[in-house]
Amino acid sequence: MIPNETPLFDPRLLAELDWSQNTASFRPAISPLHPGDSLILRPLCTADLNRGFFKVLGQLTKVGNVTPEQFIKKFDHMKKTGDYYVTVVEDVNLGQIVATATLIVEHKFIHGCSKRGRIEEVVVSDECRGKQLGKLLLSTLTLLSKKLDCYKITLECKAGNVAFYEKFGYAASDETYMQSRFSD
Ligand code: 16G
Fold first, then answer.
1. By the 8 A CB rule, do 88 and 96 touch?
2. 3-state class (DSSP) for residue 114
3. Which of 11, 43, 131, 150 is most solvent-facing, going by the fewest CB within 10 Å?
4. Residue 31 and residue 43: Cα distance in Å, rounded?
5. Global pTM?
6. How far is the CA of 95 from the centre of ligand 1 (A)?
7. 46 CA → ligand 1 middle, Å
8. Residue 61 Cα to ligand 1 middle (Å)
């Protein structure tokens, strides 16, 4: 198993988003097709393992010791289901992933057999803060969830990040997020 450039999902889904529906403001103006100098926004591929993908995820939480085999197996599973939209921003000059966020589409019987979107693992590497990349990823994946016909999109975040997510039309819900952890 050799890491390669095969995208996790069809890149046209990102390229063909109707950016005029974006609600956050960007100064300077950037978009999924033009994320900034020497940056590209695209689906994850297995070659990103060697471009520091885990280093970026490690700035959010524990990533553990993942072997290339484990990574590729998980990638293949996600690709097969077709419901995982792990998106990255690469600095092509450095050949490094500098930001990532994931949209997961969950299938429902309720709401007329509808779908729910979940935003997960939003991380911008320390060195790339201030380039609006978190905002860009959030706007992109929120629009994508709408395009994929999700009836709602949700995420969990720290209280200090609520104002950030409000920019994209998210509001704190009256439901409480609960968890039971089986490991830390
Ligand atoms: C944050 C993330 C969530 C991630 C979790 C990991 C966002 C919006 N939320 O809540 O996606 O799974 O952190 O924390 O990025 P854990 O390692 O404590 O589960």
1. no
2. coil
3. 11
4. 15
5. 0.97
6. 25
7. 22
8. 7
Q: Could you tell me whether strands 39-43 and 150-154 are parallel, antiparallel, or unpaired per DSSP bridges?
A: unpaired
Question: Which tokens hold the place of 106?
Answer: 């969950």
Residue 71, amino acid: F
Tokens encoding 138: 């959030």
Residue-by-residue pLDDT tens, the chain, 184 positions = 789 999 999 999 999 999 999 989 999 999 999 999 999 999 999 999 999 999 999 999 999 999 999 999 999 999 999 999 999 999 999 999 999 999 999 999 999 999 999 999 999 999 999 999 999 999 999 999 999 999 999 999 999 999 999 988 999 999 999 999 999 8
Q: How many CB atoms lie under 10 A from the CB of residue 135?
A: 18
Q: Which two tokens stand for residue 129?
A: 């803060």
At 125, which amino acid appears? S
Nearest CA-CA partner of 60 in 145, 119, 126: 126
Ligand 1: residues whose CB is within 6 Å?
60-62, 119-122, 155-157
